[in-house]
Write a structure and sequence with these properties.
Elements lengths: L2 H12 L11 H23 L4 H13 L1 H4 L3 E6 L2 E6 L1 H11 L2 E10 L3 E10 L5 E9 L1 E4 L7 E6 L5 E6 L2 H20 L5 H16 L5 H13 L5 H8 L8 H15 L5 H41 L1
Antiparallel strand pairs: 1-2, 3-4, 4-5, 6-8, 7-8
Amino acid sequence: MSEVEIMESGSAANISAPAMPAQVDPVAVAAAEEAKALVQAAYTVALHRPRNYMQARQRILDACKRPSFATTVEYSKPVGGGSVNGPSIRFAELAIQQWGNIRVDTTTTFENDEIRKIRVQVLDLETNACFGRVITINKTVERSNDRGREILRERINTSGRTVYIVRATEDELATKEAAAISKVVRNEGLRLIPQDIIDEALETARKARQGNVSDPQERIRKVCDAFAQIRITPEDLSQYLGCPIDKASPGQIDNLQTVYTAIKSGEAKWSDYVQQDEGKNASAATTETASLLKANLNQAQQKNGNGKESA
């Protein structure tokens, strides 16, 4: 073999085939570019149209003065034997909108047959303050009736009844996802708005709720009609309050409106309030029984003591 042939064979052995370029999904590239363009446009608008703090505050307060909106501003739900009150999802949506230059992004980061993970971020385009979290949506729902459903698991509830865990339909999954995202937007988005403005708005809404009608009975009727739409009767409300609904005080009616807001927005269920009330009644009954037993014991001891002295 000649020297030229040896050199050619050696160089051929050292030369590797060029690497093939990785295949790129044009749809993914287009989506990324679109998201980038939207964010850049949002920053540009925020730069040229910065928020007016006093104007934004006034718009939020004006909305809370409307009686129809004021009834949806706060929620109340039972937690750990007590109750928690706070600004509702509907209030957070309006406050974020009126505050201006705030962007909400949702991105699906993982999904399989059982769960869907979504990253929710709330970004202030003027200060670059960003809050968010990743939520997990289970693609299942619990039903007492398994007819026509795909059963995945089952369990026994506190009442001793069988509850079926079935695969969620598209509508059920969309409802669960929207509710979970709304809660994150409320909790994280309100962190971008000064707390004093939120407190002022809630106080304004309370005054609007208490003075929205001249006749207190009309306000009670409106509350009963609202609960009737979610199949909660005036008798249920009377049992929850511990007095007839037509005798309820303005503060009790205000509390019922926050309860309705929590149930309507998916924060809680009526059974949560009923179970809490039953727990209080059971505790009171136990205390009363213990007091009666103690009184009877004292009476018996006194009788025995008197008998010994006379003997």
